[in-house]
Automatic annotation (TrEMBL):
Enzyme Commission (EC) number: 3.6.3.-
Transmembrane segments: none
Keyword GTP-binding listed: no
Entries under Pfam families matching the protein: ABC_tran
Keywords, ordered alphabetically: ATP-binding, Hydrolase, Nucleotide-binding, Transport
Name of the protein in question: Putative phospholipid import ATP-binding protein MlaF
Gene (name only): mlaF
Tagged with keyword Transcription: no
Organism: Rubripirellula reticaptiva
Lineage start: Bacteria, Pseudomonadati, Planctomycetota, Planctomycetia, Pirellulales
GO molecular function (one): ATP hydrolysis activity
Domain named ABC transporter: residues: 26-264
């Protein structure tokens, strides 16, 4: 097998002529999801290119988290399919799905660190679990490198998660997500619960990470500052229950700079944080 070569953006170069082929890492094909009740997602089709940073926005309950879980095979679509790097998730074996999951780094909202482990062991955990042949000096080098990348000093390694601030824990979570050098990074509400300065530190780290690695990133967020700053594409979902049968659930799919001037007034209201007709809807009991 030939070893693929990569251009400076990390895209695989084609065998002919060496030009970059920005093939899509993810293909979502006519995906619908329900959990026995009403549809949560209906007929979602979108492609996510390698190296792209895409922000998924939309009000609470519109299906952002379900969409993110569907992308990584944690939720199976009721209809439609998701392809990860050309492999349809529903068709792969359990072992292949584990291999795919190893290529995905998760940065959870609450960092999801193991309380009983030191910071060092938390960051090292995926590496030790997934690569039994890795030597302890290698583990040490990689843990220290990723902690330094997220701006944490070496003396945090012996501490426990409870001894760190929320912002520091999020940075440890990012270091841990990076340790297996993922192809896809999924950030779930990366700035929720942080003050504006620490939120911006996290935003800068998301940008830094993309500069350093040719990673594809999906950022699920309510934070418009984050969506605008870190992404090169924003997709806005709308709650299925408030749409007519034939309406698209994706109200916006485009560049963050176009959000303010979106044709759909619901997008403009969302990004400006305006209640609009929602107040009168609530007064009329249309809110659930
Ligand atoms: N496992 C499940 N079983 C049943 N219903 C579910 C399940 N997971 C999600 N839902 C429902 O799907 C809808 C969308 O939920 P989801 O968590 O994706 O919303 P969200 O846009 O991420 O909201 P938030 O911004 O508040 O996190 C909600 O009505 C939720 O109750």
């Amino acid at each position: 097998m030939n070893t693929p070569s990569y251009d400076e953006d990390g895209f695989e170069e084609s065998a002919v002529g060496g030009t970059a082929v920005a093939e899509n890492l993810l293909e979502v094909r006519e995906v619908s999801v329900q959990f026995g009740g009403p549809w949560v997602l209906r007929d979602i089709t979108l492609s996510i290119a390698r190296g792209q940073t895409i922000a998924i926005i939309g009000e609470s309950g519109c299906g952002k988290t379900v969409f993110m879980k569907t992308l990584v095979g944690l939720v199976s679509p009721t209809m439609g399919a998701v392809d990860f790097d050309g492999q349809t998730l529903a068709n792969v074996s359990r072992e292949e799905l584990s291999n795919i999951r190893r290529r995905i780094g998760f940065v959870f909202q609450n960092a999801a660190l193991f309380d009983s482990m030191s910071i060092f062991d938390n960051v090292a955990f995926p590496l030790r679990q997934n690569d039994p042949s890795v030597t302890e000096p290698d583990v040490r080098d990689r843990v220290m490198m990723h902690l330094a990348e997220v701006g944490l000093p070496s003396d945090v390694t012996r501490k426990r998660p409870a001894e760190l601030s929320g912002g520091m824990r999020k940075r440890v979570g990012l270091a841990r997500a990076l340790i297996l050098r993922p192809d896809l990074l999924v950030y779930d509400e990366p700035t929720t619960g942080l003050d504006p300065i620490m939120s911006d530190v996290i935003n800068e780290l998301i940008l830094d990470t993309r500069r350093r690695y040719p990673v594809t990133s999906v950022v699920v967020t309510h934070d418009m500052h984050t969506a605008r700053k870190v992404s090169d594409r924003v997709v806005m979902f709308y709650p299925r229950r408030r749409l007519n049968e034939d309406d698209s659930q994706i109200l916006f799919d485009g560049s963050p700079s176009d959000l303010e001037h979106a044709v759909d007034h619901r997008v403009r209201q969302f990004v400006r944080g305006e209640a609009g007709e929602r107040l009168s809807e609530m007064a009329r009991g249309l809110e659930d």
